[in-house]
UniProtKB/TrEMBL annotation, chains A, B:
<keyword id="KW-0808">Transferase</keyword>
<dbReference type="GO" id="GO:0030170">
    <property type="term" value="F:pyridoxal phosphate binding"/>
</dbReference>
<keyword id="KW-0032">Aminotransferase</keyword>
<dbReference type="InterPro" id="IPR015424">
    <property type="entry name" value="PyrdxlP-dep_Trfase"/>
</dbReference>
<keyword id="KW-0663">Pyridoxal phosphate</keyword>
<dbReference type="InterPro" id="IPR004838">
    <property type="entry name" value="NHTrfase_class1_PyrdxlP-BS"/>
</dbReference>
<dbReference type="InterPro" id="IPR004839">
    <property type="entry name" value="Aminotransferase_I/II_large"/>
</dbReference>
<dbReference type="GO" id="GO:0006520">
    <property type="term" value="P:amino acid metabolic process"/>
</dbReference>
<feature type="domain" description="Aminotransferase class I/classII large">
    <location>
        <begin position="35"/>
        <end position="383"/>
    </location>
</feature>
<dbReference type="InterPro" id="IPR015421">
    <property type="entry name" value="PyrdxlP-dep_Trfase_major"/>
</dbReference>
<dbReference type="InterPro" id="IPR050596">
    <property type="entry name" value="AspAT/PAT-like"/>
</dbReference>
<dbReference type="GO" id="GO:0008483">
    <property type="term" value="F:transaminase activity"/>
</dbReference>
<protein>
    <recommendedName>
        <fullName>Aminotransferase</fullName>
        <ecNumber>2.6.1.-</ecNumber>
    </recommendedName>
</protein>
<dbReference type="Pfam" id="PF00155">
    <property type="entry name" value="Aminotran_1_2"/>
</dbReference>
<comment type="similarity">
    <text>Belongs to the class-I pyridoxal-phosphate-dependent aminotransferase family.</text>
</comment>
Amino acid sequence: MTDRFRPAARMAGIAPFHVMEVMGRAQAAAAAGRDIVHMEVGEPDFATAEPIVEAGIRALREGHTHYTLALGLPALREAIADFYRRRHGVAVEPRQVVVTVGASGALQLALWALIGPGDEVLLTDPGYPCNRHFVRLAGGVPVELPVSPDTGWQPTAAQIEAALTPRTRAVLLASPANPTGAVIDREELARIAALLRERRVALIADEIYHGLIYEADTCTALACDADAIVVNSFSKYFGMTGWRLGWAVVPEALLRPVEKLAQNLFIAPPTPAQHAALAAFEPATLALLDQRRDEFRARRDLLLPALRGLGFDIPVTPQGAFYIYAGCGRFADDSSALCLRLLDEAGVAATPGLDFGPHTARTHLRFAYTTSRERLGEAIDRLGRLLA
Amino acid sequence: MTDRFRPAARMAGIAPFHVMEVMGRAQAAAAAGRDIVHMEVGEPDFATAEPIVEAGIRALREGHTHYTLALGLPALREAIADFYRRRHGVAVEPRQVVVTVGASGALQLALWALIGPGDEVLLTDPGYPCNRHFVRLAGGVPVELPVSPDTGWQPTAAQIEAALTPRTRAVLLASPANPTGAVIDREELARIAALLRERRVALIADEIYHGLIYEADTCTALACDADAIVVNSFSKYFGMTGWRLGWAVVPEALLRPVEKLAQNLFIAPPTPAQHAALAAFEPATLALLDQRRDEFRARRDLLLPALRGLGFDIPVTPQGAFYIYAGCGRFADDSSALCLRLLDEAGVAATPGLDFGPHTARTHLRFAYTTSRERLGEAIDRLGRLLA
Ligand SMILES: Cc1ncc(COP(=O)(O)O)c(C=O)c1O
Ligand SMILES: Cc1ncc(COP(=O)(O)O)c(C=O)c1O
């Protein structure tokens, strides 16, 4: 008798988020009355900025509760295009902008439009955990590009060139990256873009942590390659994770396939969120968001030397996002076990390296500075007592 | 030189929504000053009911703007489970309820969890256009079950039995159905459920138009098969299309695969929408929604005899949703051409049969009564003048 609900074979290859185990355990501990410092959470602790919330409320009161066009509100597509002009000095046509259900939706649309069975996509390891699953769901083959502190946790053009095969159809880069906060160097990005253009391989640039960049000089991939597929989101810099809104900038040739997919897969991105996001680009809102970015920088500047002082190995200063990917070889052979120990014995929740790919998994964990400086200070004290 | 942006082979098989062509043309005509009666739109014309909107606004003011758990807010999962008990007298565990990005997200999760390369899924033709694409994206083979007025536009157990092969893994039914408004008979549903249970084939029941049912006696598929995979949404009866919120009820054996997929594909469904939806189940809200359902019934009762009187062939009285699937063989050989003619010459927008599968496409079009009775009356007058 066959099993009526036998999962599709692909399911064996799809990993859950290991951080969820930490989160579940942290919640149980908190419910039992323990005080937990949450450094496992990959989203800003701030609620969405008030001007955005107020625009959302206005939209709801005005009855903007219907489906929009699959590619999003024309006014929002224009505002996003305009943002590229103003912030990056890059020309983007509104018609190239596709509003999506988060960067998650944008990554899916791009990969499903391009990638078929056997096509290879190069991805960094460590990297955002969902990417390899998106590639697999599209029938493609995720090919890992191991990155290390030696190259600032980002791949080089030479490394990518060595990894290209006749089956490579796309390279997916994130800058700033999750979990390392690593920013790709402007010149290296230009070299990579030129290489991929010559080899007719698509460049997919996940710029979801743009706006949360500290000292580094960086640019959108569109400045290096007008045909880059750029993925972005209102989740991080704009502080709108729960609204589920992102976008992609896609080259003309992919617009029609992406539109057909968007119609069928999503019908449309959330409407109240789209109206709210229109307020995100106003100067007063951007000023507020930049203040929050400065707060993230101050947190990094508090946490980074403290972790180094405790003996975590962090040879490259993370330049963006809100993560520190810390080598913990000095404290444990297995970062997953260490994560549980930090939680159980110090009440500090972090994410095990395992979530980000096998390459550096056992020797690293990710601290997110998505909690106040006061709480970070508390975490540092506790870690100090445990690990001293 | 290979084309850098050559779409994946699958894209050739993914159809756009033909209704978009009608909508685009209708918008252009409206922009040029023409008055268009919109009967092509597959969503309630009402804005979301006030108690739901107010709950959404409260949630935003309270800062509920972060990611939730991938399967949704526990309180919402409980409220949905409770709704099955109260409205249908069926026991559903909150843990079986998966909150999703619309029924669209629920259909994807169910199919990707179950269906792999070569697996067959039986789908009605005509039916909801996206379903065959969801099956194809999962690598499966959509197998059409042609339905006709002879069996009330729904498949019979005998027809399904004849179509089963050793490769069939699921049957996807919708009741009430899009585009026909057809409701599956309670006894027939029980026969189908028993058949599929015996043959170890999953039953996926799309109940998105539940709540919008007129005279017919119907029930949730869960009443016939506790292991049915039920897909539903806040879009239609609850009037929340633009919020992008739906749910699935899944059997225990599929919970873990569905959760892993949900984490990776969507992270979580929209948070403000989830909080808003909590207000959807309050008695005062349900009373309001039932009034709207009664208005839809009154519209059907206006439109149906008028269309029949004009010579459209509608042998089965549609029992639910807000659609009339009308045979137009008397007026044209090709319903797509007729749709354009109705738009251009009468200012009435409808959807060509082509969107719903090839079987009855050329001889049918779909009228949605998602506009006021006054506007429906206007449309009837105009159609009368054109087609008389
Ligand atoms: C690198 C990266 N890309 C994409 C995403 C998806 O985010 P969202 O769908 O909320 O935009 C995340 C979320 O953490 C991320 O870290
Ligand atoms: C039969 C059917 N199923 C599913 C959907 C998807 O709706 P949503 O994703 O808004 O819940 C629709 C939308 O029209 C539909 O008609």
